[in-house]
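re: the backbone from monday

yeah here it is again, tokenized this time
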């Protein structure tokens, strides 16, 4: 334990502090014992967990240059070779690819209308499937996972998932998520001697990479330069412009960028939608049209002008990290979940209550501690797209249906399964058409 390192449970040789973690909800208990900044050992690798708004903002925004790197020698960074977006080192190459990807998703090849059309098209399929089972309980999981996957696949690959494509593209994402958070990853990260062995799970990564290579080659044959139909076309246009001179935009970088967007854009959005359904069904008064209509208007207006948190907003409390010494290169885990229910930051920190986002005049406001997309230079690159998806899908469903928790479903379990994204436990839901007088269309 380096001198003046944040406090934490005592590590064991080889295993580090893994046995101190409650695997259901690994970070919560330790926060209670050790406060906002504490340390763990993942095998013999020290790590620091940061909780709460002030410490998180201090690290990710005020000291962004020190806290925006990525760990090396983990399963996932070895696979991506620190290329692409998510696991790329903080530096000019990552910055150029991030800028290109953001502009492409936002303005260039695919503007707002392009996204909206694809999202609404997919929302139509969701509605169709829900209509078929109106009045009867159904398990919404696959409907929403497929919808989110279809949206990102159309944006990145220009393809909606037919049955064959679903098998090809969705299954490796699920397998990869399980691998990255499963026992193989822990073993890989804590036992360097196994890294050069032909480990069985490497097959999944290779398979996923080869799929993307094939899709890029297909695009090369059919594309019309300058008339991009999807992200791959946009990237190929960019490669044409840059020639072989810019290593930040090589084909290898392109493959990892595409994998990153596909991976980051799938379970994140679908699990958020599923969590929203779970809460809305169990808080039916919040689904009410008068409430929704009033606030949907405000939210629509605000969506256009929402500015992400950026630049230092220091207060005297922003010094929580300073008391400790966190050596350069230490793995740092910002626990965003802790900020989202932090006492003192929210009117009702432990409640699903839209009042958390309304000011005294009933207008929509975005509290500073609303950080589900993180903050600072590494904050989510797909935030705009994700917000558009969440908004269009949920508003369409709320206008069309009443979402009902089935009578025999028992008490809802709000505790998500911990993983790369937090996944609500499987549940059933019922939908019922809203009458026209309720404002349905
Ligand atoms: C509700 C949906 C989503 C949530 C809650 C979410 C959340 C996040 C968070 C917290 C990060 C920062 C992770 C870190 O610090 O390493 C992140 C990064 C990222 N997200 Fe999202 N995300 C969502 C949807 C999406 C979508 C739809 C896309 C793709 C279009 C996307 C692409 C990315 C990428 C590429 C990064 C890495 C950015 C970088 O390192 O520069 N995300 N996301």
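seq for it, each position gets an aa:
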């Amino acid at each position: 334990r380096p001198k003046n390192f944040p406090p934490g449970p005592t590590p064991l040789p080889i295993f580090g502090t893994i046995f101190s973690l409650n695997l259901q909800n690994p970070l919560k208990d330790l926060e209670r014992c050790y406060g906002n900044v504490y340390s763990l050992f993942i095998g013999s690798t020290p790590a620091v967990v940061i909780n709460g708004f002030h410490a998180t903002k201090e690290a990710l925004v005020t000291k962004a240059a020190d806290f925006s790197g990525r760990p090396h020698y983990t399963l996932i960074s070895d696979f991506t070779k620190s290329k692409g977006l998510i696991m790329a080192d903080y530096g000019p190459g990552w910055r150029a690819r991030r800028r290109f990807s953001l502009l492409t998703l936002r303005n260039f090849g695919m503007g707002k209308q392009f996204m909206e059309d694809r999202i609404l098209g997919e929302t139509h399929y969701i509605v169709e499937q829900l209509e078929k089972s109106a009045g009867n309980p159904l398990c919404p999981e696959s409907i929403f996972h497929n919808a989110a996957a279809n949206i990102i696949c159309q944006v990145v690959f220009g393809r909606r998932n037919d049955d064959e494509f679903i098998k090809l593209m969705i299954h490796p994402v699920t397998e990869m998520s399980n691998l990255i958070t499963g026992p193989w990853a822990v073993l890989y990260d804590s036992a360097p001697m196994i890294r050069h062995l032909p480990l069985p799970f490497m097959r999944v990564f290779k398979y996923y990479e080869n799929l993307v290579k094939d899709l890029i080659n297909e695009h090369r044959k059919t594309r019309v330069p300058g008339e991009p139909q999807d992200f791959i076309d946009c990237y190929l246009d960019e490669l044409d412009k840059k020639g072989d001179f810019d290593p930040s935009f090589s084909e290898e970088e392109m493959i990892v960028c595409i994998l990153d967007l596909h991976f980051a854009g799938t379970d994140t959005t679908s699990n958020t939608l599923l969590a929203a359904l779970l809460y809305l069904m169990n808080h039916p008064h919040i689904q009410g049209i008068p409430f929704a209509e009033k606030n949907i208007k405000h939210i629509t207006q605000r969506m256009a002008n929402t500015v992400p948190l950026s630049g230092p907003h220091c207060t005297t409390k922003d010094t929580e990290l300073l008391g400790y010494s966190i050596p350069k290169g230490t793995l740092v885990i910002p626990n965003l979940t802790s900020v989202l229910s932090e006492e003192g930051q929210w009117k009702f920190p432990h409640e699903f209550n839209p009042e958390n986002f309304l000011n005294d005049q009933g207008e929509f406001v975005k509290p500073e501690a609303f950080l589900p997309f993180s903050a600072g230079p590494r904050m989510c690159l797909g935030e705009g797209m994700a917000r558009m998806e969440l908004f269009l899908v949920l508003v369409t469903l709320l206008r069309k249906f009443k979402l009902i928790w089935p009578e025999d479903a028992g008490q809802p379990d709000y505790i998500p399964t911990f993983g790369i994204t937090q996944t609500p436990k499987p549940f059933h839901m019922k939908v019922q058409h809203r009458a026209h007088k309720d404002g349905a269309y």
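Residues 301-319 have pLDDT under 50 and may be disordered. Strands lie at 37-42, 45-50, 331-334, 401-404, 430-433.
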